[in-house]
Specification:
The protein is mainly beta. The chain contains four helices and 42 strands. A hairpin with a 5-residue loop joins β1 and β2. It comes from Anaerovibrio slackiae. Keywords: Membrane, Transmembrane, Transmembrane helix.
């Protein structure tokens, strides 16, 4: 383990090898340093705005002043449940601006006992363009929850570091009921019971989420990455190794919070899953929920599960990686992939999982899908169109209720490729093992 990070002195050199000065470039850019790759977001410049983090009581009345002071907010749990393991904070607003740090401590005071889970409920939309650290025993650790009926936005300069992170946008009535106090909050997270998703709640991630053991995002609409080609791209990563000691107040030293060239041990990686859930039963066989993945990287040390009500779209600059298995499905809508999907083990993709109206439940691939050590299974309630590349190291199985058209490349390294079609089959490519 790397020891406690040291502060840079004026006589020391900065990252670019030049002597650090009071107004050096490092002060402007170091707080954009991300886990796993030292990727730098562009300096946006312009006027600096103060963040706004305000507590409320159980009745919604404000408590105290803005917790963000001089660019740093040190926040302890407002309540603790009877088990002493789960803490609760209630906020009206939670906004962390570019250049600011919010440290969420897993205890109710500077001398309190460590909590396992910290739940943060927010009445309004959560906005993060600075750095948010979940800190347990002076390290990045613990199960961090954000619950807001209005969802969350992480801007391109925003970074969340946590042991694990769960963000949920439930309907307001459910939010108030299940998270009324610390004990009900403890039951909600234990049973994963927070009611229906809010129609207004969206999760938009243009920045970066780094966790050791897992990411869980749940909203009717999930958008990862900007559609602008100039955007540096989002990242969601699990299996990140954090330093033993966290620097909580020096923006220049945030780089030392994360180790970037290692993975967690295998025993911890088993829990390094990424779960995205955008699924709401609207009745009549229709499910709402969309997932759009634009430019950026979703990188899981464990499994990846994408459970979406309607449509999934990934563009050519998107990459989804799983260190284990990957399961992607929609209830009634289509899946369109133009990016790269990679898993070490089995990849399962299903469109039209629900018996409802799935007439548009097609699968279209223009990108690359690869299972390096496992098989591949695709089930489309309607049709399949492959214009890209699909590779696996085990058995591959294609099932379509209507039509399969392949003009791309479908290859199984060590087994057969099977196609089961309801009506029509057309294999135009000469680079495929596909047969019916």
């Amino acid at each position: 383990m790397i020891g406690k990070p040291k502060r840079l002195k004026k006589s020391q050199k900065s990252l670019n090898g030049k002597t650090d000065k009071k107004n050096s470039l490092s002060r402007k850019v170091l707080h954009y340093v991300l886990a796993a790759g030292f990727v730098f977001a562009p300096w946006l410049g312009g006027e600096a705005y103060a963040g706004n983090i305000v507590r409320i009581d159980a009745n919604g009345a404000s408590i105290g002043d803005n917790l963000m002071q001089n660019g740093v907010a040190d926040i302890y749990a407002g309540e603790v449940d009877t088990s002493g393991k789960v803490g609760l904070n209630r906020f009206n607003t939670f906004t962390v601006e570019n250049g600011e740090i919010a440290n969420l401590y897993f205890k109710n005071s500077s001398t309190g006992s460590a909590l396992d889970t910290l739940v943060n409920t927010v009445e309004n939309q959560i906005n993060i363009s600075g750095i948010v650290n979940g800190i347990r025993n002076n390290t990045i650790d613990g199960n961090l929850y954000f619950i807001s009926p209005q969802g969350m936005v992480v801007g391109s300069t925003g970074v969340i570091n946590a042991g694990s992170l769960t963000v949920v946008a439930p309907e307001s009535d459910f939010w108030k009921y299940y998270f009324a106090n610390a004990d009900t909050s403890a039951n909600a997270v234990k049973n994963r019971n927070w009611g229906r998703l809010s129609d207004e709640g969206k999760i938009n991630i243009d920045g970066h989420i780094n966790t050791a053991t897992g990411i869980d995002l749940e909203a009717v609409s999930i958008n990862l990455g900007s559609t602008a080609s100039s955007s540096p791209g989002f990242s969601l990563k699990t299996g990140v190794v954090f330093n033993e000691t966290v620097n909580t107040d020096d923006i220049d030293q945030q780089i030392n919070n994360v180790l970037t060239n290692e993975r967690l041990t295998a025993s911890t990686d088993e829990n390094g899953n990424i779960y995205l859930y955008a699924r709401k039963d609207e009745g009549g066989g229709y499910y709402a929920g969309t997932l759009n993945i634009n430019n950026g990287l979703l990188d899981s040390a464990g499994n990846v599960r994408l459970e979406i009500g309607n449509t999934i779209t990934t563009n050519e600059d998107a990459s989804i990686k799983s260190g284990k298995e990957m399961n992607i499905f929609t209830e009634t809508g289509s899946i369109s992939n133009d990016g790269n999907i990679d898993a070490v083990q089995m990849i399962q993709i299903t469109t039209g999982n629900s018996p409802g109206d799935s007439s548009d439940a097609n699968f279209i691939n223009r990108g690359t899908i690869c299972s390096t050590d496992g098989g591949f299974s695709l089930t489309a309630r309607n049709s399949v169109l492959n214009l890209g590349t699909i590779k696996s190291n085990g058995e591959s199985k294609f099932t379509a209720g209507n039509t399969i058209i392949n003009t791309g490349e479908i290859i199984s390294e060590n087994s057969n490729v099977q196609a089961h079609i309801g009506r029509n089959f057309c294999n135009i490519s000469h680079k495929s093992d596909l047969w019916s």
